[in-house]
Amino acid sequence: MRRTCLLIAATLSLAPALATAAEPASCAKVRLAEPGWNDLTFTTGVATVILNGLGYKAESNLLGLDIIYQSLKNKDLDVFMGYWDPAMVSYYQPYKADGSVETVHQNLEGAKYTFAVPQYVYDAGVHDIADLAAHADKFDKKMYGIEPGSNQLMFDITKDAKFKLEDWEVVESSEQGMLTQVDKAVRHKDWIVFQGWAPHPMNNDFPIAYLTGGDAYYGPDLGAATVHTQVRKGYLDECPNVAALLKNITFDVPLENEGMGYLIHDGMSATEAAAKALKAHPEYLDKWLAGVAAQDGSDGAVAVKKSLGL
To answer: Where does the UniProt annotation place the signal sequence (predicted)?
Structure first.
């Protein structure tokens, strides 16, 4: 009788972990995407490393924002770690309205996103987006963005008559392509205006300043933003263990700056940068994996730390 009671007690003690991990076979593969921004490359890499450590098969795709949202709606993707609010409100609104994409959790605060210029351009009198037109020749009537599909706010501002930028060109390439142009301009003291944001090592790599005047597009306080995790409709109920992890993962600006530095300066892959950052700061794992099981029902924190060699 005593042995039976002990067996029952042991079974019950395992029940929460096993129940948390009890998910349909469709949850074994977790499909993520990011648009090629280093902050989102890093955070998606972190999620990928942790999910793989838990025994899931996580994969990440590089896609434009429009395609990411359409893929979430079509259930071709599961998770997006990078909804910037308010900068991406216009992208998300149709999917919020029809309920096809759900916001899970705020994973970062203290971010910002708006037009930026080198400090010497700011010191020369360009403090506001409205100041650009008066110096059109020095800028060659160009503003530099990132990946196609991620620069809609720049296009919208060029169409706003009050800025007098109708004949300016938005140069689209990639985050790295844009930063290469910034680096070249700064080295030659040329004038350039581009998409700037934090967290990002660019804030330490270059002497830059952010322009006011974009409140109607980027939001107040120089595009002050929060970043959120989003999923396709129904995913949280379908995959509750992954959902528990997604609700826990919360980044901060110093961690992201560090991780993005590994990507940009050290040439690491997303998962290499994530693994290095997590090994250096294992205290994050204890918070993020609270109440999260490995896919086989075992302790999630133990499984992930073992996978990282901790």
So the answer is: 1-21
